[in-house]
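Quick note —
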Amino acid sequence: MTRRCSFLKYARIVISYFVFSVVLLISACGQPDNFQGGTKSLNEVAMQVREPVAYVEKPTADEKEGVINPSSTGPSAGYTDIPKKIIKEGTIRYSVRDYQRSRKELIAVIARNGGEIVNELESRSEVSRQTQIEIRVASAKFDSCLNALAGADENLIEKKITSKDVTEEYVDMSARMKARKEVEQRYLDILKQAKSVEDILKVEEQLKTIREEVEAAQGRLQYIDHNVSMSTIHLSFYQIISNTTPQGPGFFSRLFFSIKDGWNGLLVVLVSLTGLWPLWLAAIPVVIVIRKYMKRRRTLKAEA
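Predicted structure written out below.
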């Protein structure tokens, strides 16, 4: 009986200890990961940050007719409200009869259509006169301005229109920028948990890199928006002044130029010889000695 009581006493102690251990284990498992067995290091928490991959599907046949299909079910579904981004450029080339009058008329056409001249280059030669103008005009007025320039009362040599679809690049860049902003927010949350100066500096370094990438993406998007909203027209026109190249000078003119060139050559020789005066000065004593020697030799021969 005594042994049974002693066994039951120890059994109750063992069972109580086992139940207490199970309760502690369950409590530990229920705590957040960041505080399990103490606070995780900043590097372990930072390893949980993952940048979502920006995925953009190529536009389908329906999407090419307008905005992106709202029924799309990919990561790019949040950008279905982005309209197509088209960059347009045009080229107009003229041959004109009256250069000054045509220039005034064409500039007036540009002004009426809200265009702006950003670059202008004028060149002349003996046979022609030409001007090249780069025009920036709102994309909504691109067609009307181009048609007005092409319909001018001049000899149209060339008319060309080019279009570049940058919708896919724009959507891809927007998705990447959004992903980087999400990563930036995660690092900001990590920064709030940082305890040491070293951890703070590491997070701020990562934030600096991410913010630079976001700013670069924003700059690229603004550049695309500007080129889409403002189209470019390259206008050039020229006038033929003479159909033949001017002939060279006549016979008498060339004879005169030859005499003039000969005289100039003679002056150059005289100046060059004058510049050798030290040589002439050194040659005078040598000439005197040689003449005396020759004179004495002739005298000796005569006496013999």
